[in-house]
Design a protein that fits this description.
With 425 residues, the chain is an alpha/beta fold. It contains 10 helices and 15 strands. The termini are far apart.
Length: 425
Amino acid sequence: MHRRHFLQATGAAALAASMPRLAAAAPAAAPIRGRAEHVISIWLGGGMGQIDTFDPKRRGDPQKKLAGSYYDAIDTAVPGVQVCEHLKQLAPLMDRVTAVRTVHHNVIDEHAAATNRMHTGRPISGTVVYPSLGSIIAHERGAAADGAPPYVLIGYPNVSRGPGFLGARAGYVYLTDTGQGPAGLSRPDGISVTRQPRRQELLARLRKLQPENEQALLRDYDQAIEQCLELSGPNFARSFNLDSEPADLRNRYGGEFGQRCLLSRRLIERGVRFIEVSHNLNFLNGAGWDVHNTGILQQHALIQELDTAVSALILDLEEKKLLDKTLIVITTEFGRPPEFDSGGGRGHQGTAFTCVLAGGGLKHCGAYGETDELSKKIVSNPVSVPDFFATIHAAVGVDYSKNLYDGDRPVPITDMGQPIKALFG
């Protein structure tokens, strides 16, 4: 080898060897940190069809098997952004909203697996029970005020919504009846207001006689008991007195789902950090958002109920100066294809679907990302589920780049997701 070639080769090798060290020495960019303090997460169980709601396309025809939207589209407050005709009340508010139209994952045929993916941000694992989004935010931020739980679920509980390896301290308080509050926090009829403190004093004395718990599971259980005792008092219970709200406001929110959204605003004021509101208990169309076959015939009733409740929630929070502090999130397990099935309904689609963000101090643009002419494929700005979760974390001040720990095992908090930078001004 000539001397010149030898020097060139050795110089290149030395430079290549030094590059990892130089990259490691470069400071990492500081994580994006928004200014929201609370999250209201609205869950549309069954699979909201993006092409029939927030990403409308050409009009289709199930009778002629012509793929396309089931409804006409209308303009919104944001030029160039349209939504379906049954979102009339949200249309003029879309300058406070971003419909993220390019969310995607690879789960389409199994509702439970897709529900888990959209709550934990990860596929189901045989060795790790991952925490839900609500539990992570509860773990990282805690309650926003003393005497309030960090995480409330308005709907039926399951493991996908739970704390996973974070333990019971990051779990939720749940209720299914907006008029009564969490049943487990109510005192039995035989326990009076004066008797309750005496029972707690006796419990405290008995605990002092026992050695300190060394097992994390038992410590979590004791802490859960203490939190339940605190929440069973009258201060937190007043949050569920919806009758104290003006009748015209309650009417603007609409039916049972709307009352859940109203309750979520009251819980935010009480200091709850994260609330999930389920819209899959009282199905107006007999099938919910899972609109196979004839279930699609009354899909518009669900869309209208969503429109009424969410628009009322946005305006109510805005009037109370809470909208910039509260991130509203609308998610579902997957979307719907533009084609119609043999019964005139729609199947499942995970390749491109819409999730929605509103408020939270974000720089909203009506819609983010673009799909093709039938909302079937992503054309620009794809957003993975970890990216969508990272956006929520960033908005509420959680470091999306950190690790959580399952024992000694580090677990990236969002499976390496990155926030949608365009939403942070």
